[in-house]
Design a protein that fits this description.
Number of domains: 1
Largest sheet: 8 strands, antiparallel
Mean pLDDT: 76
Low-confidence stretches: 214-221, 277-291
Oligomer: single chain
Distance between the termini: 10 Å
Number of strands: 21
Number of helices: 3
Length: 291
């Protein structure tokens, strides 16, 4: 899913294997793996001798472990401007404070942390997310946490929005999660130790009787609303997919639906999880991102 203030942790570990695979991202924005990695990064000149060209995300930090390259890890990158023709680095972009913080670090082959924090983006004075995750290589259990936030959505109303999610998943078992989402220090919905299959009910119970929790908020009136979680499984089975509660911003007019400028929907403080535990292979991937 595309996002602004993006962070993601992708982990793989096969039972019985000695090593895992860690891939972590922290970026000012992310345009989905299909667009960014499949289209932009493969858009270099069609020169048979050119292996490094393409359009790379200048805001992206990426780290991987283990290092499969001889010497320097060629799969890691830091924010910067790169040449489209051959991919060589033209200049670095400061990314560890003083305005933005885009960082990614695999502590080892089984876990790490990614952060994508932006300041002053399209009228928001702060927007970002942080995601951590780790796989226990002995037991196969995955544990992770994500935090997404934005501040400054207009001069009144929704000034600060925050979403926090935690998750654990053991081999052959359903994930167990916790979540908290709120505005200006309050709580719109919160629950802990909720098994997969009961997350929607836990959300409904949390907001029951709280008309303010699901009421439109923010300076745009009825255009921003709290949306409940979804639970599903991948089409090929085995992977549990969870979309945690988020706020939705509507832009445009329903009256123009189907025409130019029809209604657009943007997710705020969005956190997703997709994990797999099929007995022989443990491939959980926890991601946190938001727009």
């Amino acid at each position: 899913m595309p996002g602004v203030g993006y962070s993601a942790v992708n982990l793989e570990k096969d039972q019985g294997g000695e090593y895992g695979n860690c891939e972590i991202f922290g970026a000012g924005y992310y345009a989905t793996d299909v667009v960014q990695e499949g289209v932009f990064e493969n858009s270099g000149p069609p020169d048979a001798g050119n292996k490094g060209g393409g359009i790379f995300n200048p805001t992206e930090s990426k780290d991987t472990k283990p290092n499969l390259s001889p010497g320097e890890n060629l799969n890691t990158r830091k924010p910067g401007i790169r040449d489209v023709s051959d991919g060589h680095r033209i200049m670095d972009i400061p990314h560890e404070g003083n305005g933005v913080y885009w960082n990614a670090s695999c502590d080892n082959d089984a876990g790490g942390k990614g952060t994508g924090n932006n300041v002053d983006v399209a009228g928001l004075y702060a927007v970002g997310s942080t995601t951590t995750g780790v796989v226990n290589k002995s037991t196969g259990e995955y544990t992770g946490a994500s935090r997404a936030y934005l501040a400054g959505l207009g001069p009144a109303g929704m000034d600060f929005v925050r979403s926090i999610a935690s998750i654990s998943q053991k081999p052959g078992m359903k994930p167990v999660v916790g979540f908290h989402i709120g505005v200006n220090g309050g709580t719109s919905a919160s629950a802990s130790n909720v098994p997969y299959g009961s997350i929607t009910q836990a959300f409904n119970d949390a907001v029951k009787g709280q008309s303010a929790a699901t009421a439109p908020v923010g300076p745009t009136g009825g255009l921003i609303q709290l949306i409940g979680p979804t639970e599903s499984e991948s089409e090929n089975g085995g992977r549990y997919i969870i979309n945690f509660p988020f706020f939705e911003l509507q832009q445009g007019l329903e009256a123009r639906k189907g025409g130019i400028g029809h209604n657009q929907r943007v997710r705020l403080v969005n956190i997703d999880y997709e994990g797999e535990s099929n007995g022989m292979s443990i491939k959980p991937a926890g991601t946190g991102n938001h727009v």
